[in-house]
Amino acid sequence: MSKLKVSMNTAIELLKTPAVPYRLRFQQLYLLPFVKSFKFFWFFNNDNSNRKRFSKLWIQRFPEGHIPEVIVQADKMHGDMQHWEVYELLERLKTSKEPNILWRIARALYFLSVEQNVSKSNKVNMINEAQMALQSALSSGGVENADVHKWMAIILDEHYGLISLENRVRFSSLVRYHLEKACDLNPEDYDAHYMLGKWYYQMCQLSWFQKMIAKYLIAIEPPKCDYALAYKYLAHAEELQPRTMLSNLYYLGNTCMHIGQYFKAKYYLNMAASLKPRNDNDKRFLAKAKRLMEKLDRYDLARNNVLFYDPLGFNHDY
């Protein structure tokens, strides 16, 4: 579906909104990008106060406790990879300070920022806007919203990474804090547990030399981590969605190898090797899993099988 057609559909839905006076409907219609060129419409008046009034009316038309229709529509568009259309749909409602709208705006901006042919300056602007939206969500009742914290972690990591590696390291603990909050608030969130497990894994992978550089040149004490924490969150992610993400199985296998659980490591890596790669990233992890399996062949797995258990039921047929 073309952007113009989506914009026309959005405009039609806007004009059909019964709770909003006609003048406000036309004023809000002006905010849609494809309409801004029609400046000969005398009734368009881009007044910020009216924009705030419209946002409040839009949210109020939905009964308390029900997900607004606009959010359902935005999630459907997101599933169809229509990230610009999601941003276009929700951006006019950001003055409502609704956390569930604001984190979706941040999500749309993130996916737009990682598209090909996006300049660094545009990417920085998108990430900065996403961060502002999430800060607004946290200050507007989103402190107990798991998705707000999850996307704050993603956006902060991207934001500081765009500034410098030093800043990315300096604020890594802040990223961990938001991921931990996301996991605590929603124990069923696969992505949050996967990202937090990966965070612990990557911290454990820092060499002695890298830790010394961080401590004495960047003046940052790297957080103390162990592979057991990485395993805890990665294993929980796998429990939530078994045999889904090749990279998670690879990290699990590598983590088990580092803590001496070679039999379990090979089990996870075998499972990773059995999955069909869906993209180039999966292909890279598949190759890494196979290389790691070759290393594991050097070990006598029989001496380790007493430590093996199968919490996810991978030894059963489904």
TrEMBL record:
SUPFAM superfamilies: TPR-like. GO terms for molecular function: microtubule binding. It is found in: Cytoplasm, Cytoskeleton. The keyword Cytoplasm applies. InterPro entries: RMD1-3_a_helical_rpt (IPR049039), TPR-like_helical_dom_sf (IPR011990). Keywords: Cytoplasm, Cytoskeleton, Repeat, TPR repeat. The keyword Endoplasmic reticulum does not apply. Its main location: cytoplasm. One of its GO terms (cellular component) is mitotic spindle pole. Interacts with microtubules. This is Regulator of microtubule dynamics protein 1. It comes from Psylliodes chrysocephalus.
